[in-house]
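Quick question: who can interpret this fold?

. . .
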Amino acid sequence: MTTNGDQPAERPLSAIPEDQDVGPEVPADGDGDLLGPVLPKAKRRKIVEHEATFLEALPSGAMYERSWMHRDTITHVAVAPAAEFFITASCDGHLKFWKKKAEGLEFAKHFRAHIGPIVGLAVSHDSTLLVSISSDKTVKVYDVNTCDMMSMLRLPFVPSCAEWIYQKGEAKARLAIADRDSPAVHVFDVRGGTNEALETFSVHRAPISAMSYNAVHDVVISIDDRGVIEYWSATTHGFPAEGVQFRSTLDTDLYACAKVKATTRDIAFSRDGSQFAMLCSDRRVRVWRFATGKLRRTYDESLDAANELQRAGPESLRLDPIDFGRRQALDKEFAAEGSASETAAATPAANVVFDESGNFVLYPTLLGIKVVNLVTNRVARVIGFGEANERFIMTALFQGSQRPDVSKAARLADSNRAPTKDPTLVACAFRRQRLYIFSRREPADYDDATAGRDVFNEKPPADEMLAIEDGGPEGGVGELPRGAIIHTTRGDIHCKLFPDECPKTVENFTTHAKNAYYEGIIFHRVIKGFMIQTGDPLGDGTGGASIWGAEFGDEFSRALRHDRPFTLSMANSGPSTNGSQFFITTVPTPWLDNKHSIFGRVVKGADVVLAIERAKTDRNDKPVDDIKIVNIENLTSVE
């Protein structure tokens, strides 16, 4: 249609149908008139519906809420979700059951199970049976619901791993045990009352290092020392007839580990049996689709990848350089011990766990325990990111619901109450005798220092005994001073101390004060708009020692933060390197939280602190004119 001068009539935008494109038409596929490349259609970013709900069902603590002890290094953790039990094992052959409560855990039972180290734990898919195997060639079987040992087997070989391979309702409770020195797999009926194997067969050409049962498809996946992965039927022990979409492993990615000579000591299945994952010896997390044997995701968690993340990764995942260096050194020690045959049995095996939805995997890294969204391919959170002194290794996840422990009458009267959800992750760490509990709660603030988050349910090792037994000149925690006056050449600084929250730090500070250790020491580092630092007898920031002669650990509390000026905090060169040096902040410094131990606050004399801060300094932040501590006077209380 045209108007005056045959000019096209203008159409208002409102007259154009919504389904009509505005602008040049995009040629249809196969248009022969189009020359040159065609831009591909933009892919829509994948999302997980109700992601926030799924994350609500996972632990989120940046610090562990509580820890309990074994007598020796913990090497295995497992969970029986239907029975609401966690099970832990240590390298001295001891086993402990922990009952999941409405909030946290409760110790249930202790077994001196084996003479040698425990090399494997396995819980049946219905959470009724547990097996522990040891290098002493014994096998112990437990009833999880009653926490009782029900049978014992003596083997003619050293086992490497074990797995339950029976379906719910079967008369025989079949247990598969792999030989450490041959490819053989031996199947036992633990209810049969005999040490004789029902069957012995081989599906590999090398000893098996890990195997896991997919109860949905009645199929076992195993991996050997060469990294070769095999599928086999739990019933016939041959290639599965159903549930898989391939007939040859050459059509899959099951040789991904063998190609790089990597293996693993743990295989995890998603709840629906559609995926399985491994944290391999080459520090890669690999996730496969069960039906096709194709890799879905691969995540590089090597030290090189950690260095690159520290250099150019998101700010939220970067660490203080000193903190990162210490974690990196600890990670290298873990890698060295895990690969050495003589120490492997006492070193936990790193593992992967799926959440209930199958959309997330959780696995331990140098930074903490990562929660990765498999759909969006992003890190959703890092559990335990604030724990600089622990290298978490093996984890077990519980996402079920519990009802509070109340009487039967109360339960009947309140039967409509929704079960309590308390997602809990239990982890063990490198060279640690403790199991660490993560939840959606941060550590509680305890008024009684003896009731802190680290429970001493066993006799502590020598380094921990130092913290709780060596009372020092001031005696117990209850007798520690609760205040101090720092007399300086510029005036007096009155401080309130926190012996309940950080007894070791306060004991160290007040004992040094009583022994005249700080007399004549200068403020060697003064930075305007930041802090004033002292406590070094050498006067250059490189000296100082604790009252015990060695460096001592950090003490952090949620109630004590660098959220205000005039905070007393310990100076250090990294986690758990406290000596005698301390500093007083002049502004809020929240980036120092969980890195430096707060042990006091200035209650009077802030003007003296600011006067010292304004002192003229040289290029090394040292005052040109010396400002000294005359002495420090301890006080039993502070008004």
